[in-house]
Amino acid sequence: MSYRATIARQPESLRDSIAAASADLEHIDASPLKAGLIGITGIGASFAAATVVAGEFQRLGRRAQAIRAVDLMQGGDMADSIIAMSAGGRSIEPVSAIQAHQGCPSFGITKEGNNPLSSVVGAHIHFASGSDATPSSTGYTGTLIAAGLLADKVAGRASVEWATLPAIAADVLKTAGDRMEAAAVIFNNRRAIDCVGAGSAFGTADGASLLIREAARIPAGPSDTLHYLHGPMEPMDATTGVVIIGDGREIKLAQDMAAIGSGVLLITAEDVADAENLVVIRVPAQTSRIARAILDILPAQLLAATLSDALGLTDTKFRYRQTDTKIKAD
To answer: Is-contact 130 12, C-beta < 8 A?
Structure first.
């Protein structure tokens, strides 16, 4: 299935993911996540998701931290419980991270189960998001759905009406799709694109930068909003672009970056007007940082597809596939 086609079926995928993960969670004891430090881990896009999820657990009053799987692989009792995420469940690093913490309560989130990660964790949640493409779209949001439902179970209350999210996502896709022609103009021939956000939105920025690198092969990287003001923004000018996600300091940053000539896409819940070099996409505010992150990534997915098309890279495959990052199927 093409990348655009998988983005278009996000509402259907979200419905399927909610149903599958909810069914699994009925039989899972989440009490180990109610005390101590929760380490949330993954590799690649799954680590971007881990940053989002850690922010939501923090909002709920839990001690939680996104920890890189390559660090957890070293052992050392870095957390009191671990949530490991890998859409395919075959990435070596999160599996090794769990194996290095044998006595630690662990929870795995994967697409289907029956994979190396699901076999080493203490409890497993699958999200059944269906077909995906390169780069991942439904696998990323399905991971977030499962983690959001798990966070609600730990909190003992629902932070969002999850059943309404697919319809909201469909509206966001329509809104964002209508803005892509304007975004294509301001991002034309940009030599590099920064992606900026704070808290859980920093995870979304990380995920967005990875999409741009994979789909359009444009150098891109993430930065925390306030950190960005302390030097990382210095190379930006009229030859660069910025994707900014957020409702606070991000708004002035977006306006300032547009004023210096950078192409800017601002994803926000606030009522902000377009300007020269600035395209604004509004998404509905959400109490759950995970639900908000799902909506925020949809415009970024469409932007990556738009940039890919403009460069003649539609549905391009990875050039530099590695042979030692996945555990082979039996």
So the answer is: yes
